[in-house]
Amino acid sequence: MHRPEFFHLGSGSSTYKLAEWAQGEMDLEPVVCPADPGHQRPGKRLTDLSVTLPRNSVDDIVWTWCSECLLTDRVLELFRAAGLTGFEVKPVKARYERADTEPPRLWELVVTGWAGMAPPDSGIKLIRHCEVCGIKVYSGPTDLEHVISPSQWDGSDFFIVWPMPKFVFITDRVVQAIRDNGLAGAMIEPPEAMRFSPDDTIGGGRLSYWMPEQRARELGEPLGIY
Ligand SMILES: [Zn+2]
């Protein structure tokens, strides 16, 4: 069987192109912990994305400060035509910060593909857990070669690994679609090249913050992360 190669799709290190959440236009469900006020935090986003774009043009693939990945119509059509799997899209409201012209239509990439929980070999460990509100904080990975466990991968071209829902992983089929079409705005690297510092913590929230309701329930309920 062809063993696919996996990559991380990200925005790269430069931040000047990153889109910002439009102030006051998005609602987040607050999570309040009856046991510890320090656990209060924003939960699930209740509204579609609304963003401002810092430049007067956009790449084919656009990223926000919160790691959301946005696609133009062209990219969405190319991904669909290539038969890529493991994603849905949600509409995005976008405007340029400094121009009166309309930006091209953008779609938020919602990853539905899944490669389960990061295996213990990755070095990701649960470091804090509250039984009352369910907050879970993990240490960042120390062995990036083992973040993705191929045996848990569902075969999707776009997928996430728990508890790293902000990191979009892709197959070489996606890499090929991006390269063949010269799409701008994507940084592609092997998982081993991702950078974490020893103090980094990651927290996945709940799977329902990231995936469509039904998919989140089906995957997350047995694992206690729905
Ligand atoms: Zn709590």
Blueprint (SSEs and pairs):
Layout (H helix, E strand, L loop, with lengths): L5 E5 L9 E2 L6 E4 L9 E5 L4 E4 L7 E3 L5 E4 H9 L5 E5 L1 E4 L9 E6 L2 E4 L8 E4 L6 E4 L18 E5 L5 E4 H9 L6 E3 L11 E2 L10 H8 L6
Parallel strand pairs: 5-9, 11-14
Antiparallel strand pairs: 1-15, 1-16, 2-5, 3-4, 6-7, 7-10, 8-10, 12-13, 13-17, 14-15
Bound molecules: zinc ion.
Describe it for me?
12% of the residues lie in helices and 30% in strands. The chain has helices at 73-81, 172-180, 213-220, and strands spanning 6-10, 20-21, 28-31, 41-45, 50-53, 61-63, 69-72, 87-91, 93-96, 106-111, 114-117, 126-129, 136-139, 158-162, 168-171, 187-189, 201-202. It is built from three helices and 17 strands. It is globular and about 50 Å long. The model has no long low-confidence stretch (mean pLDDT 94). The strands form five sheets. It has a five-stranded mixed sheet with strand order 11-14-15-1-16. By secondary structure, the chain is mostly beta strands. The protein starts with 5 loop residues before the first strand and ends in a 6-residue tail after the last helix. Bound molecules: zinc ion. The site of zinc ion (ZN) has 8 residues, from loops.
